[in-house]
Design a protein that fits this description.
With 383 residues, the chain is an alpha/beta fold. The chain has two domains: 207 residues, 3-Layer(aba) Sandwich (Rossmann fold); 162 residues, Rossmann fold. 43% of the residues lie in helices and 17% in strands. The strands form two sheets. It has a seven-stranded parallel β-sheet, sandwiched between helices. Helix 12 links the parallel strand 12 and strand 13. The longest helix is centred in the N-terminal third of the chain and has 29 residues. The protein is globular and about 65 Å long.
Length: 383
């Protein structure tokens, strides 16, 4: 009888990083003969039910989006004279969440998985106690982000010794978690969903690109301003900058794009690899990342990446001066200097492209999945 894996996530049809990782791992496990189900607590993007995958996807509550009022919101409401309204919303939402988690628990009993991969600390509350030693909680954020949420820390501490493993996204975060007091740790890098051996002609393409979610922490408006300032030098007139994503830009960014012949907002794309293979380098201006999938995808296509020092994992993703540049957070002048350096130096751009492609092989799904199967085997041996 084939082994069964359950991915448990809070959002059943979100196209964010958690979905991308679970989909990539799930499809590879399916290919290897495992049974795979993705179970979402709620939907988050109406109209995205026809996702192209062979995976079995179930959602407990398709009516409601993922929204949680917290105790700190009740405290804040005192300042705005909305205490009772916020308190009532808190009670209703937590009653509904408890109901959804209980339904998820029943689905776990029905599916009876050999291994459970939880993707958010709330989902741990849905795992029946007899399944906890089959459970690996994959934390998809930086450790700094974990510490900002007291309830996140509280739940992870509660389940630290109960689950099989707390999995972190890189060695640096694992060390931080261990120093903080978590004991049941491991780490596994995110996989890159691409599997082809093609590489961009970075010298010929002369195109900067970014494929991202337009969330505030990504700071795409800052990225546009940086590139626009660099493009004011006429020696870069033959370069372009394409932005792909869903969301809105501020008025200044919209005005820059409207008045620029070199910068374009291209909307969403279903074929990121095709975009990257026609580009020369990628940019990252995020305030924080766990283990950036967009950087992995850029490397797979041979694109160097320039990024601010966004957190613990940056040194394990970008080797400064080798496959990209890591700039001190918010040192905008240095960011511009590094961008100018790559746009001006074809030899360095080409060398970094070659290095990025070679560096990417460790993040191929075939490589990453071996680490997951090793954990599954350990679960079997401990049963």
């Amino acid at each position: 009888m084939k082994k069964k894996v359950l991915f448990l996530q809070i959002k059943g049809n979100s196209l964010g990083g958690i979905w991308s990782v679970n989909k990539t791992l799930g499809e590879k496990l399916l290919e290897l003969g495992y049974g795979v189900e993705i179970l979402g607590i709620r939907n988050n993007h109406p109209g995205m039910d026809n996702i192209n995958t062979k995976l079995d996807i179930k959602v407990i509550n398709k009516k409601d989006n993922w929204e949680i009022t917290r105790k700190k919101d009740i405290i804040k409401s005192l300042k705005h004279f909305s205490f009772f309204r916020t308190l009532i919303r808190y009670i209703k939402e937590h009653f509904k969440l408890k109901s959804d988690l209980n339904k998820a628990k029943q689905e776990i009993y029905r599916y009876d998985p050999d291994y459970i991969i939880t993707s958010h600390y709330h989902t741990l509350l849905a795992v029946p106690k007899e399944y906890l030693k089959r459970t690996i909680n994959l934390q998809h954020s930086s450790f700094e982000y974990v510490l900002k949420d007291r309830y996140n820390v509280k739940v992870l501490k509660k389940y630290d010794q109960k689950v099989f493993k707390l999995a972190w996204l890189n060695k640096t975060i694992l060390n931080q978690a261990s120093n903080y007091g978590f004991r049941n740790n491991t780490y596994i890098y995110n996989p890159c969903q691409f599997e082809k051996d093609k590489k961009a002609d970075v010298v010929k393409n002369k195109k900067i690109c970014v494929i991202t979610r337009m969330h505030p922490e990504k700071r795409i408006d800052l990225m546009i301003k940086i590139v626009n300032d660099v493009f004011k030098d006429s020696k870069f007139n033959d370069w372009t900058f394409d932005i792909y994503g869903v969301g809105s830009l501020n008025d200044e960014s919209q005005n820059i794009i409207k008045n620029s012949k070199q910068i374009s907002f291209c909307g969403s794309t279903d074929s990121p690899q095709d975009i990257l293979l026609k580009s020369s380098l990628s940019l990252n201006t995020s305030l924080f990342e766990g283990f950036s999938i967009s950087i992995l995808e850029s490397f797979d296509c041979g694109l160097p990446v320039i990024s601010f020092k966004y957190g613990e994992g940056v040194a394990e993703q970008i080797k400064d001066g080798f496959n990209g540049f890591v700039v001190p957070m918010d040192d905008i002048d240095e960011y511009k200097n590094k961008l100018i350096e790559l746009l001006s130096n074809e030899k360095k751009l080409k060398n970094m492209s070659d290095n990025a492609k070679k560096f990417s092989y460790q993040f191929k799904t075939d490589s990453v999945i071996k680490n997951w199967i090793k954990l599954f085997n350990e679960i079997d041996n401990n049963s």
